[in-house]
Amino acid sequence: MDFKVGDKVSFLNDKGGGIVTKITSDNIVHVTIEDGFEIPVMAKELLKTGTAEMSDDITRAHQNIIAKKNEPEYEVEDILPLYISHNNPDQRPEGLYFCFVPEIQDNPLSGSLEIHLINHTRYTSVFSFFLNHSGDYHGTEYGYLDAQSRLQLGTIGRSEIEKWANALWQNVFFQEDKCRPLPPFSGLVNFRPIKLYKEESFQFESLLRKKAFFVEVALISDLNKKPLLDEKISKETLKTLEEKIRPAASSTTSKPPQSKESFLEKHKIDDRIAEVDLHIGELVDNFTNMENSDMLNMQLDYFRKCLHQAEKEKLSKVIFIHGVGNGKLKTEINKALQSAQGIDYYDAPYARYGMGATEVNFYRNK
Prior knowledge:
Layout: E1 8-11, E2 17-23, E3 28-32, E4 38-42, E5 46-48, H1 56-70, E6 79-81, E7 95-102, E8 113-120, E9 124-133, E10 136-145, E11 149-156, E12 166-174, E13 185-190, E14 203-205, E15 210-219, H2 220-223, H3 235-245, E16 268-270, E17 273-277, H4 280-283, H5 292-312, E18 317-321, H6 328-338, E19 343-347, H7 350-353, E20 357-362
Parallel strand pairs: 17-18
Antiparallel strand pairs: 1-2, 1-5, 2-3, 3-4, 6-11, 7-8, 7-15, 8-11, 9-10, 9-12, 12-13, 14-15, 16-17, 18-20, 19-20
Helix pairs in contact: 5-6
């Protein structure tokens, strides 16, 4: 017997019946029963019937299923493909990024900023990220992003830039069939908020065909070098990193001192002015598994070392970029500066550094 969708049927070898909602083959049809479930049944075990054996519940269940099937599938309008140019040497290396796109392209320092997650890889990206609110991480977004595509995460005002500067990102890369699996990525992704106050930071990006400020999350080339199971940073490694920052203990031998270039040279923006970025990502390469207290101590050690060296070299000014975050680093820096001699200190110019920098002037060196 031939059936079509919508036919009312009863079961030959059982009580009850339903409505045909799908036909899989000549032998198998799907029937919606009174409870609203859709079950596959052999066609030879069904009989077309009239309305006498059909209840209103079956009819309503059938109508609900048909209505759901006719609904348009949900499309994520914010996911868009990237513009890939394989022969463009200036296109960014394969990796995961997020970026800030100014809504007013002709004047990138005005208006709001769109935030996009960029999956410039051959892998599907399964991601989550957490924003830092006063020292506590808040889950903000999660999902997946197809290969070579971008997702608009939202739009923010300029006052919200700072909280994105120390976000925790987690990501797993997936590819069907035969492939080389990549280790998962998890870590803090830092950038200097001050850069978003400079017009030259917004460059034309061929992946978007728009001006944008890109922040690197993870490069495929770097992940290929890592083991699938990443080791946690050891206490010995942490001790080695601290020793690199802290001044070496004075030698008890009578060897003549050897002249060497000051470590402040890399921070100098003028002969007598230095700009020191204290964000943890600028001080160590891998801080994923460091405790907050360890990171704070390392930042304060480097601050004290720079302050001492600037006084020794008779610099006139040092700008310490500490960010906003939970305010702990700035508070500790202010405590140290209150007891220092021969200096004045105050917030650095907002137009250039935002709210996350302190300027120290050595008036005895002028």
